[in-house]
Amino acid sequence: MLYGLENGTIKDEIELILDYPANLVKALKSDQIDIGLIPVAALLDLESYQIVSDYCIGTEGEVASVAVFSEVPMDQIETVILDYQSRTSVMLCKILFEHLWKKKIKFVLASDETYISQIKGNVAGLVIGDRALKIRNKFNHIYDLGLGWKEMTGKPFVFAVWVAKKEIDLAFLKAFNEANSSGIESIKLVSGLWDFPEYSLATYFNINISYHLDENKLQGMHQFLELIG
Q1: Model-level pTM?
Q2: In the predicted model, what is the mean pLDDT of residues 81-99?
């Protein structure tokens, strides 16, 4: 989607700001930005909002980049160190331990990158993003949160959606949607832009991540929001 925005027909009509999700939420709330790719859990922080695109960051099952990693099986895990970068993933992790795995766990919020080295014995860790893809071959037990949510609810999971607080010109929204679409249609090109030996980016972009915000995804998203609300 980023590729589509940077190279599509609206590239000269927008100022594209790259930042951490939490900062984008703050910027949207303070009207510093008009549209933001917002983590789903943060929607509860907005008094009002509208989803402005047919595209999202979601998964139909295994997401690969959001998982609990452990040296021991689930029944031996006693503590989970939580990735500090993703509130949505942290909340999803807690929901799955309570409702799917039905296991009381001590949760510890990490403060920096060193926590990955602390995943050993009965201490597991929630790891997200590129780092999760890079360590997949280092642990015997991987509990994928996308798969967990699918097993628990039968629905896909949505991690982030394009959101605005105010009305956006319909002509621009159409062009914005088309830019997202053109980026997704360029997945083969995009997946070849990086050298990533630890995991197939073609698999990640084409299979693990699902982009179309259909009715099934919206149902899954609202179910998640109800559980954390």
Answers
A1: 0.94
A2: 94
